[in-house]
Amino acid sequence: MAATALCSCSASPGTQRVIPLNYLPSLAGDYFPLKSAAMGSTYHIYVRYPEDYTAKPNVKYPVVYLLDGDSAFPLIAPEHLFLTYDDKLPEAIIVGIAYGSFAPPVNHREIDFGPRAADFQRFLADELIPAVEKRTRADPDRRILVGQSFGGNFVLYSAFTMPDLFWGRIASNPSARMHSELMATAPAAAHLDNLRLVVVSGTANNPEGRGAALNWVGQWRKRQLPWSLDEIDIPGGTHAADFDNAYRLGLRKLFDPAGKLAP
Fold it and tell me: What residues have CB less than 8 Å from 136, skipping those under 6 apart?
């Protein structure tokens, strides 16, 4: 199924143009709406296939789930292609979880990633992941969850509450305003022994958020954890504009923990 995006940005009033993303090969893949029973909301799911996906029909690929897909998917899907070119990282299926708007109430990220985090995680585990893995050749042993800001907080929540759901997690500049209770709790036990969590912090992020992230990491390192924990600084990195750098550095750490890849 070829991916398409609906847009009325240059159409006349009362009309809507269909703009096919498969003319942008770094974004081309699949799209489907998913009405969630757990959340009572419809999410727009965008899937970017690896460049060699058709040519290698027997290959399964790592799969990256991007929170805030409205902005993260069009940024990170092409970035991942460049990472396979320059950093020799493995190709991956990229899944963007989008709302269809930046504005509430359509976009309810603060609710999904905060008060209803348990419901949203149930949506991922019971609805979205099975749908993606039925439609694609995703490797269930190489699932990765990536989030920025409040999305980064949900990544931490997921690591603590359902560690086995994702092999790797990247939390970019998590906010100080959400899930601070994780500081006082122990993570749930994991059955897998190869899980990884990377927290990325920009040194020019807002002081409250950066301080909270560094404090959390410092406290967690004193505990027995179900995943390996790494913290990466981005010198001069700001809260949102360095998300692609956070993705690159986090992914390199997940796939190359010993740092053997060329810089």
Answer: 30, 47, 49, 61, 63, 93
Q: Give the separation between CA 9 and CA 106, rounded to whole angstroms.
A: 18
Q: What is the pLDDT of residues 20-72, one digit of tens each?
A: 777 899 998 999 999 999 999 999 999 999 999 999 999 999 999 999 999 99
Give the amino acid at 49: Y
The answer to whether 218 and 209 are in contact (CB under 8 A) is: no
Burial class (CB in 10 A: 0-12, 13-18, 19+), 40: exposed
Tokens of 223: 């505990």
* H-assigned helices in the chain: 69-86, 109-112, 117-123, 129-135, 150-161, 207-220, 243-255
- C-alpha to C-alpha distance for 105 and 97, rounded to whole angstroms: 16
Mapped onto helix, strand or coil, the DSSP state of residue 106 is: coil
Distance CA 86, CA 63 (A): 19
Q: Is the pTM value of this prediction over 0.90?
A: yes
29 beta partners: 48
Beta bridge partners of 19: 5
Q: Tell me which DSSP letter residue 237 carries.
A: -
CB 67 within 8 A of CB 158: no
